[in-house]
Amino acid sequence: MKNKLNEMIIQAEKSIMSCKTYNDVLDVKAKYLGKKSDFNDLMQELKNLPNEEKPLFGKLINEAKQEISKLIDEKREELEKSKINDLLKAQAIDISLPGRDFTLGHKHVLTKTVEEIEDIFVGLGYEIKEGPEIESDLYNFEMLNLPKDHPAREMQDSFYITEEILMRTHTSPVQVRSLLANAERKPMKIICPGVVYRKDDDDQTHSHQFMQVEALVVDELTTLADLKGTLLLIAKKLFGENREIRLRPSYFPFTEPSVEVDVSCFKCNGKGCSMCKSTGWIEILGAGMVNNNVLQAAGYDPMKYQGFALGMGIERIAMLKYGIEDIRLLYTNDLRFNSQF
Amino acid sequence: MKISLNWLNTYFKNKLDGFDLVKKFNLMSQEVSSFEKLLDINGLVIGHVKSMEKHENADKLNVCQVDVGNEILQIICGAPNVDVNQKVIVAKVGAVLPGDFKIKKAKIRGVESFGMICSLQELGIQEFDSDEKGIYVLESDASCGENPLQYLGLDDFVLELDLTANRSDLLSYRGVAYDVACMLDLDIEFRKVKVDREPKENPVSIYTQTKDSSVYYGQVLEGVKVKDSPYWLKSRLIASGIRPINNVVDITNYVMLEYGQPLHAFDYEKIKSDRIIVREAITGEKITTLDGEERTLLDGDIVITDGEKPIALAGVMGGLDTEIDNSSTTILLESAIFNPVKVRKTANRLNLKSESSSRFEKGIDYQETLNALNYACSLLVELADAKVIGNPSFYNNINSKKKTIKLSLDKINSITGYAFTVEVVEDIFRRLRFSYKYRNDQYIITVPSRRPMDSYQDIIEEIVRINGYDKIPVSLPITPTQGGLNHKQSVIRQIRNYFVGKGLSETKTYSLVSLELATLFDQEESETIRILNPLTKEREYLRHSILPSLMGVLSYNKARKIDDVLLFEIANTYFKNGEKLKLAALISGKINNSTWQKMNCEIDFYYIKGLLETLFKELGITEYSFELSKETLPQLHPGISALVKVNDQVCGFLGKIHPETEIKIGLKDIFVMEIDLSNILNRNQTNVLGYKEISKYPSVNRDLAIWLDKNISAKEVVSVIKEVGNKTLNSVEIFDVYYDEEKSNLKSIALSLEFSSFDRTLETKEVDNQINKITDALNNKLNAKLRG
Ligand SMILES: [Zn+2]
Fold first, then answer.
1. What percent of chain B has pLDDT over 90?
2. B317 with B352: CB under 8 angstroms?
3. Which residue in A31, B532, B706, B749 has the fewest CB atoms around it within 10 Å?
């Protein structure tokens, strides 16, 4: 009996090993473990055995069944795996072919530059203020210490709509409006980005329409040193950590003292190159301490309040940052240009 | 302002280092726009023409033997005025003249030539002698072999300053000298002026009838010989950018440059009276100015008159009738101050800007008015043999009370953030030559008339610039404030990011356009805003719509073979009642376009509509609708366009460009939208925080296909379904529209309906009931039949 069982296991193992398909496995399973399998005959024989031998042989039969069942399961698993492997092999593709082409949109480089500047100032606690592009002479000039007969008005040839209304020549009127609106005299830190207009013929460096960002801080404490620190921080954020700045005396009617701000050349690191005209410095913006006349015009007591203002041309910053040499490219909207940013 | 370094050096004991000066000006005063040699020519020598004979093969050429000090050079010269014994300017072999003209050893028709005898024109300084007839002949005292530029005073450097409006003091050499002395901490030496006067009565009397001239000095000089100025005077004027004319004119210009006080010389014999009356012009009055133009005056102009007629436009230009000419012998020299604003207005109106008018416009130091006149007199005596007749006649209504400004050290430090000390501040005052007193912890500074100042801020500016901006420390404002983008600014960024994510590129176009483009997309007649002084017709009106500009960008790019153009812009548009921020988009071509994998998508009406609907979803706008509008969108295809409504208010439109326009511009299938963002951005942000509950029970989907009249819109079908459906009807989506050729007046719409409940799993019967109700309603209301 024992021999018979061993013989069966060996036979079964052989048949299982020779199985090529899942169906072959099922046949083998039917033969050894099905209702008409050889085990059934053995079970009949078991009935004829003396009672004391029954348990031992019963156990042996079960063990043999389990052994065969295990072999069958293993074979089945092996066959399934190889089937999936075949399938995977058949499905394999050439991953070196290109991906699908999604149209990529682009923000305008001026928008990118404005947003970059906005984010720097927002991080420093500034609010963003906006105002109309069609302005009154009062806000655009007079309240900014540029009375009607001021010679500096000629620096800013303007587009007039009536004698008293014009296209704003800078975003400074937004500063005036913000000061006027701040009746509580809360400490104010704002930036004013926007479109401005000057009556210049369009050429490589001039555009009758352009963008500015101006910043204004007014409280009881802000100093020229705070202006210098702010300017240094902006220069580093915009043009790189290793930048230095240099202030030079200048003149704007709305600030006093006024300065031009140079940043150390980021192309040659100050050694001198064509970009900085061999000076090592590049002029990037104008700034100064708010002129008392401006504070006074907005109803502030200049003996109590003080602060600074700065203003930069977005086109200039963008052109410097990206090496753009003709301002007209920024308004032509050639998609081969716009899509590079 | 152009500054001759030679001239500037006359005020100082030691010669200035030009390059150091440039650095100092840039960092402490005014930007230097250029610093260069007046004439950058090497290899010039003074030569003496020893002998001369005709060229054997050329009539008009002479062969000269020229002594250049250490050698005799044979030089062929073609100038008609060359002659033996002349002292001339020789460019030796190797010299390079302006225009990259290299002097080489040459053989001219068989005869060798070693250099060139130069004309002023060849040296690039024709203005040195405007009567030049050929080569330039020097005075006989010139010595051979020396540098002719040095001899003529032209071996100079010119420093050009870019002056800001607050530094009119730098419009004179004396002002520049003060600034240089301050920056470099030097002493200044101004020459003493002494005038020899004839002991006679100055015959002219001077009056004013206007407040616009505060001071006027007039001096008559006799025996004047009008001739060329000496070399030094000519070269200093040339270096300062002024063309020499004759000694009288040159002296007035020279003195103006020295003091900043413009002068004018009249031919006194041509003035019809002995009276000078300054007054306001009478409108319509006429004067012919020195340039020969007859000018019609207005009552704001100030004129110098002989008591009757104007003889000069004050501060702007003299009259032709009293012009100095070569035969003038008696002159009246004027040194006066006129109202800066009036001078500017007159000069601007008549387009007569000059060195004089620009100085009057910026303000004159009244303390130099008489000094300038006296210096000019002494020069006229010296250089024009003039006799000064008595003392100047004048009126002087100047209020010479000195202005003072108070400023404390604390104020200086609390504004600058730098710790100035008394010693530093007082040393700077000394260098600035500002006189001051110190009382009650405050400096009381007397403002010098040469440096007009308004407030302590001006004084602080002086202190900081002389101390150096590099010494100011760096810090940041310490007052706490809260920054950030407001709702509107965030939404605009969100919209931009959305469109960029959808493959559209942002443009920046001009607000100023032509009248036609400004109103092209107007839905109704609406006034435009016009610029009074436009640059061109193309930039004359403020636009009502961004789309015409986007159409321009489309044409530009299509012409450059860019087929897929997807654009958007957010910009202001301008109306009589205010500015409106609009969003415009234009798409033409394909999206995701590549031949590989063919995933590209043709753009149609539903694409641009979906683009907007998805944006509304992104912005949380649910109350929107689209309406057909046949009459009001003339630029759009009447059957493929719609008005966009948000909260039941029209806020824009979208659709396909009208085929007529497409044909006109040679492009097709252009889809556009334009939305007025003001309503959207100003929407209440009372969005209650929270979310919509998701049902735990499974939903049931049913598809429905119906036939109906093809003119019934999908919107009507959906609204009928939503009306009948109960609250278990979650959503209605259209997934197909189908037209059958045999049923030409019908269309088939396929819809997908989703049902679900929050409290139970829906039973089939319940859903069946809903569907029956819906199909009945579709049948009754729209005559829609189920598709079999
Ligand atoms: Zn550089």
1. 77
2. yes
3. B532
Of B414, B482, B500, the CB nearest to A106: B500
Interface test with A, best of B24, B481, B536, B594 (most A CBs within 10 A): B481
Q: Which of residues 199-238 of A touch B (CB under 8 A)?
A: 199, 201, 208-209, 217, 219-226, 228-230, 232-233
Measure B595 CA to nearest chain A CA, in Å.
9
How do residues A184-240 score in pLDDT, each as one tens digit? 999 999 999 999 999 999 999 999 999 999 999 999 999 999 999 999 999 999 999
Q: Where do the domains of chain A lie? A: 2-90, 109-338
Distance of CA A8 to the CA centre of its chain: 71
Architecture of domain A109-338: 2-Layer Sandwich (3.30)
Kind plus residue range of the DSSP H or E element containing B345: helix B340-349
Q: Chain A residues with CB inside 8 Å of B591's CB?
A: 103
- Predicted confidence (pLDDT) per residue in B37-59, tens digit: 999 998 999 999 999 998 888 88
Neighbours of B51 (CB within 10 A): 13
| B94 and B44 Cβ atoms separated by less than 8 Å | no
Please identify among residues 649-708 of chain B the ones whose CB lies closer than 8 Å to any CB of chain A: none
DSSP string, B146-163: S-HHHHHT---EEEEEE-
Residue B151: pLDDT above 60? Answer: yes
Burial profile A185-224: b = 16 or more Cβ within 10 angstroms, e = fewer: eebbbbbbbbbbbbbeebeeeebbbbbbbbbbbbbeebbb
Tell me which residue of B102, B140, B141 sits closest to B122, measured CA to CA: B102
Could you tell me if B597 lies within 8 Å of chain A, comparing CB atoms?
yes
Residue type, B638: P
- The DSSP string of B628-648 is --SSS-TTEEEEEEEEEEETT
Q: What is the pLDDT of residue B50?
A: 93
Chain B, nearest residue to A305 by Cα: B415
Distance in Å, CA A282 to ligand 1 centroid: 8
Distance A274 CA to ligand 1 centre (A): 6
Helix axes B456-467, B422-432, angle to 10 degrees: 100
Distances (CA, A) of B174 to B114, B368, B479: 45, 10, 45
Residues on chain A touching B347 (C-beta within 8 angstroms):
none
B positions 601-620 inside 8 Å of A (CB)? none
A43 Cβ contact partners less than 8 Å away, ≥ 6 residues apart: A61
pLDDT for B688? 60
Cross-chain residue pair A107–B500, CB shorter than 8 Å: yes
Q: Residues with Cβ < 8 Å from A174, sequence gap 6 or more?
A: A129, A130, A131, A190, A192, A194, A214
Please state, in angstroms and as integers, the Cα–Cα distance from residue B217 to each residue in A50, B52, B267, B764, following that order.
Answer: 156, 55, 16, 112
Per the DSSP assignment, residues forming a β-bridge with B67 are B48, B72
Instruction: Look over chain A and give the mean of its residue pLDDT values, rounded to a whole number.
Output: 91
Task: Give the N- to C-terminal CA distance of chain A in Å, as an integer.
Answer: 86
Query: In this complex, do A126 and B591 lie within 8 Å of one another by their Cβ atoms?
Result: no
SS3 state of residue A165: strand
Residues A175, A168: contact at Cβ < 8 Å? no
Domains and their CATH numbers in chain B: 2-38+157-184 (3.30.56.10), 44-152 (2.40.50.140), 197-396 (3.50.40.10), 404-468 (3.30.56.10), 487-681 (3.30.930.10), 700-786 (3.30.70.380)
Q: What is the dihedral of CA B482, B487, B492, B496, to 10 degrees?
A: 80
Q: How many residues does chain A have?
A: 341
Residue-wise pLDDT tens digits, A129-175: 999 999 999 999 999 999 887 766 765 689 999 999 999 999 999 99
Indicate the pTM of the whole model. 0.87
